[in-house]
Write a structure and sequence with these properties.
- By secondary structure, the protein is α+β, with helices and mostly antiparallel strands.
- The protein has 4 domains: 118 residues, Arc Repressor Mutant, subunit A (Orthogonal Bundle), CATH 1.10.10.10; 134 residues, Rossmann fold (3-Layer(aba) Sandwich), CATH 3.40.50; 115 residues, Tetratricopeptide repeat domain (Serine Threonine Protein Phosphatase 5, Tetratricopeptide repeat, Alpha Horseshoe), CATH 1.25.40; 134 residues, Alpha Horseshoe (Serine Threonine Protein Phosphatase 5, Tetratricopeptide repeat), CATH 1.25.40.
- Helices cover 57% and strands 12% of the residues.
- The strands form 3 sheets. Strands 8, 9, 10, 11, 12 and 13 form a 6-stranded mixed β-sheet that branches. The protein has a 5-stranded antiparallel β-sheet with strand order 4-3-2-1-7, with helices on one face. A two-stranded antiparallel sheet has the order 5-6.
- The radius of gyration is 28 Å and the shape is elongated.
Length: 521
């Protein structure tokens, strides 16, 4: 609908407020408030009406409501003193009193040249990989200093996302065209040819900054992910970096999961190499033998289509590693894992995820911790916000006995992606590092979190059983050990430590505790 009043027009389909050919910046919630008042202009709208119609029934303070009413007035050239367009009726509510000259569908309106040009813009086809546009974040404070902070953070988010090889990212120059405009994300998706849109806002007070961000599927309008970051302003640039890394780190696994769900709806015979790799991911990430075997079937199909697909090689390396550790430690599995890891390095020099898996295999199977850390650091240079790199790196560091750096990397990975599919590994790393430092309660707490994160991951129970035994909780420790054997009947802790080249003192300490649980050596 198009509502025309005074010298303004409010287009509810395009979510735009215009004065003749000029688009007027308007906050999304202010737009909703203005639309609600206009649509209900024949009556007095109470505070309860606004809370229900605009805020969805959430608790809203009187001051917050007054702020939004004042913002709506200011946006349309009204004020609390004049009340030409929005009138306050004391103890009653509000009413939109301006004459609305017409109500038309936007498509039937005699559009201004600017609107007509926008409506005529072509719909771009989607690229053959996930695609995203980061819109300019809304500056809720309005001051120039905050605008610099806001614009700089958005630019850094775009740069960070651009480092994710499998993601198609629209350049900032293209998204700047939407600055200060109320937009429809579906329209943005059509105009820019992207499947996902990231939008957000920044509000800065004297001592704090609050950043909200939400990822939306531009095809359906559905929310994929949302988060709020509330930080103290100590060092504004460090804060900018921290929030940027957090947003990018959270988006990567979220987008992968969204893409997996999308690919699942396709016919199996129609899948290309990319689709096959996505479909394998859940089984790869399970790290269990049966699922790893199933994933390898898909990955081999993907590599038959594209032999140079670095991430397919990286996932295959991880599957063979899981089968080596949990299905008999056959040397052929180790050799296959190393072969695929080397291929991932050869073909994935600019792919942080592929290098991360390769680094993990080089460190665990190849027992070359130095080369492994070099690869991890290369991956971080490509994508500083890659939580997976920190998590997998912490595992290699943990078994090498590097307790301090293990804790640092595991915590960094969890901070970047608190709900990461690999978080169980980070908690295992923290448990091992704490055990090495003889902080057994911390180790047991981390072990419990590992079990909660992935109950079917057998090594989580090792990380839990050892510190529980040290704490004198033998019954609970033995129950954890028994569960490990249920999940992995052939487990032998001595052989496991040898296969990982576990640091000797750490191996001895863990072995002594596990021996008391009844686990076989």
């Amino acid at each position: 609908m198009l509502y025309c009043f005074d010298d303004l027009s409010l287009d509810t389909d395009r979510r735009e407020l215009r004065r003749e050919s000029e688009s007027i910046p308007i906050a999304p919630q202010v737009f909703d408030l203005l639309q609600y008042l206009i649509e209900n202009r024949e009556r007095v709208v109470t505070k309860d009406d606004l809370i229900k119609g605009v805020w969805g029934g959430r608790i809203v303070s009187d001051s917050a409501l007054t702020t939004r009413i004042n913002a709506a007035r200011a946006t349309i050239g009204d004020s609390g003193e004049e009340q030409r367009l929005i009138k306050t009726l004391p103890r009653k509510g509000f009413r939109f009193i301006a004459a609305v000259r017409g109500q038309q569908k936007a498509s039937e309106t005699a559009a201004t040249p600017a609107v007509a040009a926008s409506l005529a813009s072509p719909t771009l086809s989607l690229p053959d990989k996930p695609s995203i546009a980061v819109l300019p974040f809304e500056n809720m404070g309005g001051n120039a200093d905050q605008q610099y902070f806001t614009d700089g953070m958005v630019e850094d988010i775009i740069t960070g996302l651009s480092r994710i090889k499998w993601l198609f990212v629209i350049a900032r120059n293209s998204t700047l065209a939407y600055k200060g405009r109320a937009v429809d994300v579906k329209q943005v998706g059509r105009e820019l040819g992207v499947r996902y849109v990231l939008e957000g806002s920044v509000r800065q007070s004297a001592e704090r900054v609050r950043v909200t961000a939400q990822l939306i599927n531009a095809e359906t309008g559905a929310h994929v992910w949302a988060e709020r970051y509330d930080r103290k302003i100590d060092d504004i640039f460090a804060l900018q970096d921290e929030i940027t890394l957090s947003v990018v780190g959270a988006i990567e696994p979220t987008l992968r999961l969204a893409e997996i769900e999308r690919v699942k709806r396709k016919r199996p015979e129609s899948l290309d190499a990319y689709g096959l790799v996505l479909q394998s991911q859940a089984d790869v990430f399970s790290r269990m033998p049966a699922q790893s075997e199933r994933a390898l079937v898909l990955l081999e199909r993907a590599l038959s289509i594209d032999p140079h697909y670095a991430l397919a090689h990286a996932y295959a390396a991880e599957c063979h590693h899981s089968l080596f550790l949990r299905a008999g430690m056959h040397e052929t599995r180790r050799a296959a894992s190393m072969r695929h890891a080397e291929a991932a390095i050869e073909y994935g020099g600019d792919d942080a995820a592929a290098l991360t898996f390769a680094a993990f295999i080089i460190g665990m199977e190849g027992k070359d911790r130095s080369a492994s850390m070099t690869l991890f650091n290369t991956a971080l240079a490509l994508s500083p916000s890659c939580a997976l790199t920190y998590i997998q790196g912490s595992v290699v560091l943990a078994w090498a006995g590097e307790a301090e750096q293990t804790s640092e990397w595991a915590q960094r990975g969890l901070r970047l992606s608190p709900f990461d599919p690999w978080r169980a590994s980070a908690f295992v790393s923290l448990a091992i590092a704490s055990f090495q430092r003889e902080r057994y309660q911390e180790a047991a707490d981390a072990g419990r979190k590992a079990v909660q994160a992935m109950p079917g991951f057998s090594i989580s129970y090792l990380a839990l059983a050892a510190p529980l035994m040290k704490l004198g909780l033998s019954a609970e420790a033995k129950a954890a050990a028994a569960r490990l054997l249920q999940l992995q009947p052939g487990f032998r802790y001595g052989r496991h430590f040898a296969g990982l080249a576990c640091e000797p003192k750490l191996s001895a300490a863990l072995g002594a505790a596990l021996r008391e649980t009844g686990l076989p050596e």
